């Protein structure tokens, strides 16, 4: 069970319930995602099964970069071009302006890498503070 309180200021009961369910899912996937990150970051060590590695090589650390190569290759091929709204040029201009102000292409690339590593990715939207774009 997660540590989400039953009431959060500014959120409805339904929103808190949804957040709680999402945190539960995240907690269930955390260990597996940690393992996936280990492979992506090339920190996975060779496992000695006691049958194939000679004693003189057992202390050798090896990493294989294929998981990162696969993720990075697919991520680089995914290009965000913006949103299109049927018959609503003003909304399209506003939304795509917000994305440009926030350098969203860079954020998108990071989110795509995360999604390919862990099977999901999350982005948040908030009000900008002084000196920041109106929407972050």
Layout of strands and helices, then pairs:
Blueprint: H1 13-40, H2 66-77, H3 89-101, H4 104-118
Helix pairs in contact: 2-4
Structure description:
The protein has 136 residues and is mostly helical. It is built from four helices and no strands. It has helices at residues 13-40, 66-77, 89-101, 104-118. The mean pLDDT is 85. The chain is extended, with a radius of gyration of 21 Å.
Structural key phrases:
136 residues, mainly alpha, extended
Q: Indicate the low-confidence ranges by residue numbers.
A: none
Q: Taking all residues together, what is the mean pLDDT?
A: 85
Shape: extended
Q: Portion of residues in helices?
A: 40-55%
Rg over alpha carbons = 21 Å
Largest sheet geometry: none
Beta-strand segment tally: 0
How many helical stretches?
4
Q: Strand fraction band? A: under 5%
Helix and strand succession?
HHHH
Q: Based on helices, strands and strand pairing, what is the structural class?
A: mainly alpha
Query: What is the straight-line distance between the termini?
Result: 31 Å
């Amino acid at each position: 069970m997660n540590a989400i309180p039953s009431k959060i200021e500014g959120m409805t009961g339904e929103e808190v319930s949804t957040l709680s369910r999402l945190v539960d899912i995240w907690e269930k996937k955390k260990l597996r995602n940690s393992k996936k990150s280990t492979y992506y970051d090339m920190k996975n060590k060779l496992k000695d099964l006691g049958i194939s590695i000679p004693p003189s090589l057992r202390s050798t650390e090896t990493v294989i970069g294929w998981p990162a190569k696969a993720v990075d290759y697919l991520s680089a091929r995914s290009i965000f071009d913006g949103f299109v709204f049927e018959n609503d040029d003003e909304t399209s201009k506003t939304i795509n302006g917000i994305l440009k102000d926030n350098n969203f292409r860079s954020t998108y690339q990071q989110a795509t890498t995360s999604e390919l590593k862990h099977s999901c990715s999350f982005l948040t939207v908030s009000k900008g503070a002084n000196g920041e774009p109106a929407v972050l």
